[in-house]
Amino acid sequence: MRFEKPEPPAAPVPPAPEDAPPEDAPAPEADIVEAQRALIVHAVGLLVRIEAGEARRAAEKGRLKVWAAEFYPRHHVRLVQSLEPVVRSIRPRSDWRAAAETVAGEMVARSMADLVAGADAVELVVSRWEIERPSEVAGRVMEGR
Known about the structure:
Helix content: over 70%
Number of strands: 0
Strand content: under 5%
Distance between the termini: 73 Å
Oligomer: single chain
Number of helices: 4
C-alpha cells in the first residue's frame, strides 16, 4: 500500500474591505487627470534635461548660437514625438497632433528667447528650465482638456 503526502492547506485569502472598489472598476477621473499630468511632467522633464545639458556644454565652448541653430529643429521633433501620445490621451476628439506641435513650438521659441536674453547667465537660465518648465508645460497641455 502506498501513502501519498497530503497537500498543504491553501493560505487563507483575506476578505476585501467593503469600501474598496472592485479591481476592474474604472479609476476616478481625478486619478486619470493626475496620471496624465505626471506623464507630461516626466516626458518634458527628460527632454529639458537633455536641452539644458547640451546648452551648458555649448555655452562653455562659446558656441551657443551655432548650437541653438542646429539643436532646436531636432529638439522640436523630439518634443512633438514625446508629447503626441499624452496629448492624444487627453484630447482624443481634437487635433492632438496640432496641439503637440503648438506646445513644442512654444517651448522652442521660449528657450531660444531665454538664451538670447540670458546669454551671460546660461546656467541660471537652464536651471530654471529644469525646475519650472515640466510643470508649466503640463499645465498648458492640461488646460485644453
